[in-house]
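Supplementary material to the annual report.
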Amino acid sequence: MKFGILVSEGPYQHQASDSAYQFTKAALEKGHEIFRVFFYHDGVNNGTRLTVPPQDDRHIVNRWSELAKKYNLDLVLCIAAAQRRGMLDENEAKRQGKDANNIAPGFRISGLGQLVEAGIQSERLVVFGD
Amino acid sequence: MDEMEGTIKKFLYLNRRAPYGTIYALESLEVVLIGAAFDQDVSLAFIDDGVYELKKNQDTTKAEMKNFSPTYRALEGYDVEKLYVDKASLEARGLTEEDLIVPVQVLDAAQMTQLMEQQDVVLSF
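Predicted assembly:
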């Protein structure tokens, strides 16, 4: 089965991002294909490399990055949602005249068309949100 | 993109929240507008507090929010014409079709269930 995943809640704030990660990981381990994981609304905060959780807690952002590396996952942050929430990649930081960027490895910033494309290309689009 | 050509899926955008107070309604509308470029079979459904998104005469001046409700009137220009409203949600909030900014089809719970069953992709916001 080819899945698309939509994550629409932030890490540590809401179970949705943990559930999305667990679902994605389980699907990949079972041999399913993940067409793309798209992060929208506060979900974009799953992709900031400045996240520093307490040491005895799970590291949600690193967990996504590691999964992306292992399975060559496409992790996409919505650009409009990301910019509203202070998330910039190197190019956008330069373009917007900002002095830093904060995207974690394995993530990329792109448009909402990537979400619609995931809906078209996947056999199932699974939404993790409130 | 070639692979997608000719693939037309039924997309339902399910709007469940009040227009202000959270960003879900506005960001849902943004997906609909971008998604319009993909020539898919698009429907919008409004249930629960989502029916307030279509309320006429919204005045957000004092809340210092952008009133984005006129955008729903522009949807027709994007060939997004199938708008459905849940009857019970409308009635529970003392609203009628006359109170809404755009023409809609009012569905009862069974019809709404049927609409959802017909979809390929349901995006719930």
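The first strand of chain A starts at residue 2 and ends at 7.
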